[in-house]
Amino acid sequence: MINLRTKQLNILKILIFSIVGITIVIGVGYLLVPWNKSLDAPLDLPLTSSTSTPIPNPTSTDEIQFTLEPSITPTPTIVPACGAPPTMNVLVSGVASNSYLYGLADAIRIARIDFQLKKVTVLALPRDLWVQIPGLEEQGITAGKLNQAYFYGTEGMGYYDGGGYGSGLLAETLWSDYGYRADHYLAVNLYSFRRIINALGGVDVYLPWDVYRQVNEQPKLFLTAGYHHLYGEDAETLARNRITIGDFGRIDNQTLILRAVAAKLLSPSGLTALPTLIDQLKSNVKTDFTPAELSRLICLAGMLDYKEDINFVTLPVDLLEQQRIYDPATDTNTAALVADDDQIRTLLGEFQAGIWP
């Protein structure tokens, strides 16, 4: 009979062979792409902002000791895992379109990846957050919802010529308004989202509530509370619908899916599926990661426990107020979330520094 230690060693061997195999696949898949060249146009953020004071990402000894609380300070003596920098800030957009030519970013997350503490924190930003959108004055656009910042930057609109198109203008908006500086971006449209979920063999979610979708302007039961195994189309429906629950409820549903994806990815079977997912990323996802940086993320993934090391958070609801705001670009009164910019700026600064949450 195989004892527990033997089983553990076998699992470890599977993980090691999976990671080695994945590395080989990445190398072969990107033979024509230089190891340190971005897969898509890198972000082109300004060095300074006229509307906010940039919050430094603490990497030096002095910055870490001055900025962070001693109890949670990643000390400079901790060597970052996988040959990576101490931290990485990633802007992730879920695009409500089957292409990248146009589309609103109806799911917006910023991820802080800590290669020292081997932790990942993912913060959801409401798509309806009212923001000042920089650089589009000639088009008569000065403000809008956060998801519109992505839309106005898309290639099809032709308004923005910076790196990353929609992701670029969205990143520039977050930098200008709140001092949040993304290092990289990742945009996933609906087509890619479905393919990625299917490549994982579907995901398992537990719904603490019944979920409804809109049919003929009326709510219709879609999924009952309880456990469900979802493939691409059903996962998309769960992620997009907000009838009876609003945008905050939709964010909660999206988090359930993200947790399920993390659980699947970090399982032995998920690691073996990574070569297929890498192919999906290469073909269907917009990102400025280099193959070298992707390899570091995959390296870190093998060290994470999805329950202990990945934290999903949202902005405090009491910071946000629902209002009707006149949008001159669309000549309509629209429902938006208004917040104190200084409070959001402080919170995102603490997020980048690893102080909050």
Features:
357 residues, alpha+beta, Nucleotidyltransferase, domain 5, 6-stranded mixed β-sheet, 14 strands
Written account of the structure:
By secondary structure, the chain is α+β, with helices and mostly antiparallel strands. The chain has a single domain (4-190, 286-353), classed as Nucleotidyltransferase, domain 5 (2-Layer Sandwich). Helix content is 38%, strand content 23%. It has helices spanning 4-29, 61-67, 146-153, 166-178, 190-199, 232-240, 246-265, 268-284, 291-301, 341-353; strands at 87-95, 105-114, 119-125, 130-132, 143-145, 184-189, 203-207, 211-215, 218-223, 226-230, 285-287, 310-314, 320-327, 332-339. Strands 11-6-1-2-3-12 form a 6-stranded mixed β-sheet, sandwiched between helices. A two-stranded antiparallel ribbon has the order 4-5. Strands 7-10 form a two-stranded antiparallel sheet. A hairpin with a 4-residue loop joins strand 13 and strand 14. The chain is globular. The protein starts with a helix and ends with a helix.
